[in-house]
């Protein structure tokens, strides 16, 4: 064993030795995923190790991998490299390469999505990122069916964004799988990890541990040299090893000390000095190796390097720059690779890139383009065109981050200023789809700085504003959008309408009346510009922006055309999302829910972030009674938004989920989610989140019988004159406010508010019908006993109320209670039975219990068979049971719900005993009983039993 090999081995084993506690903790976390203790609940599938360069991350990961494999587990590993950061799905390709034969066994849509991501097949359209994630999840599940699986991503700060998205998507769904995703990164704010605490953070070694590591080196420094190494290394294990080695190579410690530089810069200096001291032939070979910069190069690239046994590597190996393992030469450490690449003579570096570009010409056009660009020191329209073509390929594979980077580099290389501006604008548009506001702002600033064209500058500002709509800075976002809208009115009315449509989204989220006035001032100027006939999308956007900003004033013709527009747009998911949002705001909830469903079922996406109020889908499904679907949508939106750092989108998802939890009776969960949502926003800039959160808190208080608190929360939703805090989201809570006020002795106050809402009905436009029903229900609760029944019956005759199952069932329950308390027992049973059936179907447990209590008090016989067995399942289990009852296989259910087949099977296994069944064929009977109004015999008992 040569000295370098000994030094490396001792350094690595020494690091593991002095970090023994961290290693034991990490092994224990992985072991917990393999064999969780009974009753301990789910164990996080995603483990993260965070530490700076040289902190020992890779050493610990390798030790964990060794133990895991020795215990019979399977390991899939990807070692990320800087040169592949902007190659979409390169990390995922490396990770799945050892099990690539399993791709053929995936369901067709998943197989096609993964083939498109890996550029194995030319996609007809960009694959849905969620479908790619589901394919990865299915592959992990299949591998783990044979033995526990550990998935490792090392140096994840350099992993491409598309791969991380797919892996983190899968990790969120691995609760029932013996699969662990272990991520080691130098970046604690890595995409997808910013909102969570690392499993392990590697702090600098303490003095004692650093001393022990030095004592393990081949040449142990002593005296002043030892003290200097300890001071300079600052507890970094790699620095301790390399500085000790460097000190041993020289007579004076001054040769190892480079002044007050950060540790990584000192190490780079050391590596750079060693590179400069190599023989010319060895240096060229080492520069070639660093230029390859990948852990899994193709055979043709390996053949381009000197053979692993070639003596040319010996000086580099002795210098600690290269190690030979696995039948090929490798850079000793990511820092040594970086130092080599950054400090190598420019001509040698360019020559290596040109040779690699030629090798990849017919094999990998993306790498061909990147190496050409790296070798180009001046401007080149040809190389720029290669990069733009690569960006187009990345875009078609949903690799938006990679596409943005390629387009930016293409802009840098293009000699024509106008073309450079065009490419930067395109890069900005792609960056919007990644959710990275900092990247979008930087690219937009570059676009504005590089052009004299006011239209191009305005369009760049528009892209920033589009993404800012999902942040909590709504005043800033609105200004960012209205500036381009005004600037583009005359020159580009289509783009101006895009800006106004995005501004209308901000108006919805903020609920700010001043923003409405600004939109309504500018919208007529853009909707009918002189000399600029509008196309179909522009006409749609003009009507859409008006409907979103003020549904009450929406053109009646636009509302009537919605079903036809939806039918015409069935192949255009982005247009369907726009139409669904408009339908929901105009209180066409069923049309909205079906249209959202069609949009998201299409399997295509322009990125994972909600655009055109796509995040409102959960509210539409909630009102329509599709609560399982709403729950899933909230989870997906929050996962994507939190990973991108988009606070308002995260808050919207949390507040909507809080309302759903409250309606299901999960009081503690509702409060936690509502308070979390409120913590993310300024309520003065985000009335939508404010109102949803207080609706949830008010409902939760009402469930517990705390009517004073319920009233306080509901009062946040209206001022004293009945003006809503949010123009659309406040009104559904009006009956809840009235009920809480009646029980808290505040009838007069509530009556004034209801009076104000009723006065506004004449100008309410399309939403007037539903609001009228809500006013009637509120009057019924607040009115004297002799007047209440007329209000109840008027509300229940209103078809707008009947289209919303939970609202309708609440009205039936209130009316049934009112009738029973007036001893009209036989009349009370019918509305109570109908209400109880809906509540059972929705798993609204507090209302089920309340309705059943009223039925018993009305003399109805509740059957001995537990009607809440299905309601007792978790929302996800209910969703799985419904799909399995239709005859779908576990794999088909998994694909629809973005789960793994094993998770589906696990949920069914746990659901069968709860449902009292033993065979899959019995699921159909369970669902038939749930979806029916109720068991016929039971309904006969309830409706026709004696008084």
Provide structural commentary.
The protein is mainly α and 947 residues long. Helix content is 64%, strand content 4%. The strands form two sheets. A five-stranded parallel beta sheet has the order 2-3-4-1-5, sandwiched between helices. It has a two-stranded antiparallel sheet with strand order 6-7. The termini are far apart. The model is unreliable at 1-12, 36-41, 251-260, 863-867 and 933-947 (pLDDT under 50).
List segments where confidence is low: pLDDT < 50 over at least 5 consecutive residues: 1-12, 36-41, 251-260, 863-867, 933-947
Count the E strands.
Answer: 7
Number of distinct helices: 48
Structural class: mainly alpha
Q: How far is it from the N-terminal to the C-terminal residue, by CA?
A: 95 Å
Strand content bin: under 5%
Q: Give a quick account of the main beta sheet: strands, pairing sense, barrel closure.
A: 5 strands, parallel
Report the mean per-residue pLDDT as an integer: 84
Spatially, the strands of the biggest sheet line up as 2-3-4-1-5
Shape: globular
* Rg calculated over all Cα atoms: 32 Å
What is the percent of helical residues? 55-70%
């Amino acid at each position: 064993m040569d000295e370098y090999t000994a030094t490396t081995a001792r350094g690595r084993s020494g690091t593991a030795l002095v970090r023994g506690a961290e290693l034991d903790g990490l092994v224990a976390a992985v072991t917990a995923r393999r064999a969780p203790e009974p009753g301990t609940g789910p164990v996080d599938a995603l483990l993260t190790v965070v530490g700076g360069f040289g902190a020992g991350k890779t050493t610990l990961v390798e030790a964990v991998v060794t133990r895991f494999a020795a215990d019979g587990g399977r390991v899939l590993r990807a070692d990320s490299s800087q040169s592949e950061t902007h190659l979409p799905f390169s990390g995922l390709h490396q990770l799945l390469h050892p099990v690539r034969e399993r791709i053929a066994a995936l369901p067709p849509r998943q197989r096609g999505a993964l083939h498109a991501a890996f550029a194995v097949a030319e996609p007809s359209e960009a694959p849905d990122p969620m479908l790619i994630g589901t394919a990865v999840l299915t592959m992990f599940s299949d591998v783990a069916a044979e033995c526990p699986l550990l998935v490792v991503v090392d140096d994840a700060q350099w992993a491409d964004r598309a791969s991380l998205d797919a892996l983190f998507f899968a990790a969120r769904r691995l609760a029932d799988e013996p699969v662990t995703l272990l991520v080691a990164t130098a970046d604690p704010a890595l995409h997808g990890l910013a909102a969570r605490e690392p499993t392990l953070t590697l702090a600098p070694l303490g003095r004692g541990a650093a001393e022990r590591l030095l004592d393990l080196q081949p040449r142990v420094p002593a005296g002043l040299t030892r003290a200097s190494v300890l001071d300079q290394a600052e507890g970094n294990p790699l620095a301790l090893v390399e500085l000790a080695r460097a000190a041993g190579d020289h007579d004076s410690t001054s040769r190892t000390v480079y002044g007050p530089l950060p540790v990584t810069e000192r190490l780079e200096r050391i590596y750079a000095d060693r590179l400069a001291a190599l023989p010319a032939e060895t240096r060229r070979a080492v520069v070639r190796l660093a230029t390859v910069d990948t852990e899994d190069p193709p055979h043709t690239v390996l053949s381009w390097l000197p053979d692993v046994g070639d003596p040319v590597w010996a000086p580099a190996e002795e210098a600690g720059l290269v190690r030979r393992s696995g039948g090929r030469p490798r850079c000793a450490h990511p820092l040594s690779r970086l130092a080599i690449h950054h400090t190598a003579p420019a001509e040698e570096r360019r020559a290596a890139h040109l040779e690699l570009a030629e090798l990849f010409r017919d094999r990998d056009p993306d790498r061909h383009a990147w190496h050409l660009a790296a070798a180009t020191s001046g401007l080149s329209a040809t190389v720029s065109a290669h990069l733009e073509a690569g960006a187009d390929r990345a875009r078609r594979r949903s690799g938006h981050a990679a596409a943005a980077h390629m387009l930016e580099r293409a802009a840098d290389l293009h000699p024509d200023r106008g073309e450079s501006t065009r490419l930067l604008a395109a890069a900005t548009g792609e960056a919007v789809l990644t959710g990275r506001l900092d990247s979008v702002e930087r690219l937009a600033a570059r676009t504005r700085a590089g052009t004299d064209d006011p239209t191009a500058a305005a369009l760049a500002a528009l892209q920033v504003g589009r993404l800012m709509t999902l942040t909590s800075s709504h005043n800033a976002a609105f200004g960012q959008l209205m500036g381009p809208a005004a600037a583009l009115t005359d020159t580009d009315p289509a783009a101006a309408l895009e800006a106004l449509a995005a501004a209308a989204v901000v108006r919805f989220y903020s609920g700010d009346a001043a923003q409405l006035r600004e939109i309504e001032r500018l919208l007529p100027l853009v909707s009918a510009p002189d000399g600029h006939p509008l196309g179909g999308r522009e006409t749609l956007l003009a009507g859409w922006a008006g409907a979103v900003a003020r549904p009450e004033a929406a053109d009646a013709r636009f509302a009537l055309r919605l079903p036809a527009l939806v039918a015409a747009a069935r192949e255009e998911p982005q247009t369907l999302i726009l139409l669904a949002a408009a339908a929901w705001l105009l209180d066409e909830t069923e049309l909205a829910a079906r249209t959202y469903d069609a949009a998201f079922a299409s399997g295509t996406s322009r990125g994972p972030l909600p655009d055109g109020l796509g995040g409102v889908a959960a509210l539409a499904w909630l009102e329509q009674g599709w609560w399982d679907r709403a729950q899933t949508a909230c989870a997906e939106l929050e996962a994507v938004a939190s990973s991108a750092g988009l606070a308002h989108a995260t808050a919207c998802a949390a507040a909507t989920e809080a309302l759903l939890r409250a309606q299901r009776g999960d009081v503690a969960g509702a409060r936690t989610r509502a308070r979390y949502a409120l913590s993310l926003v300024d309520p003065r800039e985000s009335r939508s989140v404010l109102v949803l959160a207080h609706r949830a808190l008010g409902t939760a208080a009402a469930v517990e019988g705390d009517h004073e608190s319920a009233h306080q929360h509901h009062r946040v939703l209206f001022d004293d004159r009945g003006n809503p805090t949010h123009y659309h989201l406040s009104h559904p809570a009006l009956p809840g406010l009235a009920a809480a006020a009646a029980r808290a002795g505040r009838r007069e106050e509530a009556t004034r508010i209801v009076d104000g809402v009723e006065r506004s009905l004449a100008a309410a436009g399309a939403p007037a019908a539903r609001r009228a029903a809500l006013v009637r229900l509120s009057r019924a609760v607040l009115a004297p006993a002799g007047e209440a029944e007329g209000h109840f019956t008027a509300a229940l005759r209103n078809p707008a109320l009947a289209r919303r199952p939970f609202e309708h069932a609440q009205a039936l329950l209130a009316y049934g209670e009112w009738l029973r308390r007036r001893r009209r027992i036989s009349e009370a049973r019918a509305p109570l039975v109908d209400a109880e059936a809906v509540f059972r179907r929705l798993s609204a447990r507090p209302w089920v219990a309340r309705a059943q209590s009223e039925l018993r008090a009305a003399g109805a016989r509740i059957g001995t068979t537990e009607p809440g067995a299905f309601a007792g399942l978790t929302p996800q289990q209910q969703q799985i049971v419904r799909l399995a009852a239709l005859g779908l296989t576990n794999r088909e259910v998994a694909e629809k719900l973005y789960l793994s087949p094993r998770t589906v099977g696990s949920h069914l296994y746990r659901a069968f005993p709860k449902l009292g069944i033993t065979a899959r064929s019995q699921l159909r009977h369970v669902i038939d009983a749930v979806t029916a109004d109720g068991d016929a015999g039971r309904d006969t008992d309830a409706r026709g039993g004696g008084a």
